Amino acid sequence: MALHVSLVSADAELWTGEASLVVAKTVEGELGFMAGHEPVLAILAAGQVRITQLDGTKVLATARDGFVSMEGDSLTIVAGNAALVA
User: Which domains are present in the chain?
Assistant: First the structure.
């Protein structure tokens, strides 16, 4: 079962796709998300977002000033400032 992920910054959609695991830093600590996770709304802390795609490859981004929302099998990360890490 896949998790649909959308990572957006204030001015652009940075990454959208299917993932098996996403780890994001919130003000209460790091949270890991997989398909079937309970609903969550959390404040995003400055840090790294790690997305593991279905094929095992990883996408890394930095993000801060926003929120993380999990509903059903959809995870949305909205950040005031975010960028993909090369």
Answer: 3-84 (2.60.15.10)
